[in-house]
Amino acid sequence: MRVWAGLVTAAAAWLGCGQEAWAAAADLPQAATLSYLQPLDLEGDPSTALNLARAQWNQAPTPESGLALLALLLQIQPARPAQKLQTRSLATAMGVRFPSQPLVRAQLGYYWFQVEDFRQARADFFQALRGEIWSPQQRRNLYTALANAAVAMGDLPGAVEALRPAATADDPEMVLRFGRAQLAAKQRPQALASARRAAAATEDPALRQQAEELASAALRPADDPRAFRHLSQAYGYLRHGEDLKGLQAFEAGFALGGGKAFHYADAGYAAKRLAKNATAAADFRFALELEESAPAFSASQQFGYSREIEVLEREFGAQVGSPYQAGALDVWQFAVEGFWQPPQWGYRDGRTLQFFLRTFANLRNGSAGAVGPETLQGGMGLRYKPWASQNVVFALERLVAMGHKASDDWLVRTAYSLGEGTDLQVQRRWWPSWQAYADVSWYAQAGRLLASSEGRYGAALAIEGWQELTIAPCAVAALEFDSAAQQQAVGAAGAGANVRLWFGQQRHRAPSSWLEFHWSYRWATADRGQGPVVRATLWL
């Protein structure tokens, strides 16, 4: 065969590429290269071909001539010690001379891998991947080669990172390979997630079966005494309130492949107390995955972990409300609010910081009050909940007039609330439910003080066959203070009911949204608090 054609074919076979990629990588056009290397029958006179290739390299050290000589040295008597030394020297020289040639670095990577210099092979594969000449299949091969070099060095986490860019949704086979690397690195939760992704992305029964086998393997803890010692040590730290050391001990046990469902759940709570929200959510989620294969939790525990995940992962929220109060006020309003809770530091073990925007307007305002767009009021501000154990919230808001009947002002608010039984209780058909709140608002420029409080006590009943729908009859008591009113303080009491529908539930994540309708009738000490109160609220 001809030397040039043979060498191009050999190089292409190494990488799985065609002559087009070879030509695209070259500094010189193919015709110019052929003028340096005459067609020869490699099998007929290998020594002549080798001498000619050396002469070409010495005369014109280009990527083509260097790769041609490298291929010949590997083809012709590669086991000779002197030739091994020549080959290594040539590969080193090419790496120095052509540091930014992707095809050269790829071929050198394969050479260094062959001679078991895995560190250099890894460096060359990494540099080769920075080139833009590769087809999707070639790039996939290079990612695999980079991962193999990391494995050969004993760097299993490095192999995971090498495969990460290639593990995309349109390549389930690569996602599966990525998951296997994660399992080899003892990253069980990540390996399980990759197995699920691969199974969802493929129609191939064989590949889906492999994904299911990987998932099963990820759910089985390793029987490693070292892992058991770390996990046991974690509880010792937790008993003494040392959450950071406890979490580190848990993670050391997990890194050795150990850990059952309750280990991950307890690690999740330790991470939550340390405000490591992403870690906590991941630990709770994997605890629930393990629970499915080996049941260990009650229904209330499972729901509690799924609620923790929902709270830890929330960054945005919105509320739409439409309250109506009859009596002398006869006021009906419509309000919309959206908030952003910054990731990581917006939620710190029950302490929250939120930035919000809101707007509201009157839809009805007595017999002659202003309604509609002219009452549109805007506001923006922040609120902060500084204590984990007490639901006290401080807020500062700038009110902005959007309608000419609205006002510009600064609003300072403090709110406190407490309650029990307001969330779903998946293990019960009915349960006691009560809540109370107090809110104090100061309008700085207007010099107006508003304060309100309300308490409800009753029981929530879940609709059979539809646990997310609850009805809660309740007794109601309320107190209101308005420094601008003729009768500043008003008290009221009555009875009513709440109907709430929860929705937005996901796998291992509790429902995050609800729609509530409240109705009550109240007897009050002043006309403005007398009569029916109706509220519709959508929480997203």
- Could you estimate the helical fraction of the residues in percent? 40-55%
Give the helix/strand class: alpha+beta
The major β-sheet equals: 12 strands, antiparallel, barrel
Question: What's the Cα radius of gyration?
Answer: 35 Å
Nearest-integer average pLDDT: 88
Q: What would the principal axes of the Cα set say about the shape? A: elongated
The CATH architecture of the largest domain comes to Beta Barrel
* Low-pLDDT residue intervals, each spanning 5 or more residues: 1-42
Number of strands: 13
Put simply, the count of helices is 18
According to CATH, what is the topology of the largest domain?
Porin
Instruction: Report the β-strand fraction as a percent range.
Output: 25-35%
Q: How many structural domains are formed by the residues?
A: 3
Class of the largest domain in CATH? Mainly Beta
Distance between the termini: 71 Å
Order of strands, main sheet, comes to 1-2-4-5-6-7-8-9-10-11-12-13
